[in-house]
Please model this.
Amino acid sequence: MDLASNFKRVRERIEAACARTKRDPKEVELIAVSKSHPPELIEDAVGLGQLVFGESKVQEAKAKIPLCPGRARWHMIGHLQSNKARDAVALFEMIQSVHSLALAQELQKWAEKQAKPISVLLEVNIAGESSKFGLNPGKLLQELSTLNAFPKLELRGLMTIAPWTREPEKVRAVFQQLRELKKRCEDQLGAALPHLSMGMSGDFEVAIEEGATLVRIGTALFGPRQYRKMTRSGEDAE
Model:
């Protein structure tokens, strides 16, 4: 695997998608999905200038992050259970997967105890898939004011995971709906929400065309996930 070539190719694709819609590429931040990949690979990516990484499991992140360069920044992008909220607040600068009011309450509790404000995105199950977590749009709008009122949680926008498909055009409507929902949220709050986290290795160009500001890309950068022990810690990667 040629990591440098992979990053160069992905960045070129991001720039091309921005050019098609007359967006500034600086508006789109690449979140390198590092779950199941070892600290050495993270170090190599940091050496290439990539600083923001996404992890999906708190236990893996807790073992891995101390072994990675201190310049790296970390987002929680996977399903978060309430009993992992304390560690999540301590480990991450942003939690992209706040999928319920109950989870937000737990994050607020631990953010208060740790005296640490934390940026959050609300996860929305736009497609209504039973296999995925996330608020449905109606419930989100109903609970939005409450979710926005937690003093230690800084609401920064919305996140969704589109249905898997080999044809990215098939999920364009999902990204359009999330963009439109963000506008409704902004109108309701009377304040801007800067981020739309949507798009992964198979569909990120369509997501950018529809307004994504954060794209979560793993396979296109690092290749297939490496389900093996992390070499420095001896901990099994999840």
User: Anything to note?
Assistant: Residues 162 and 171 are 6 Å apart (CA to CA).
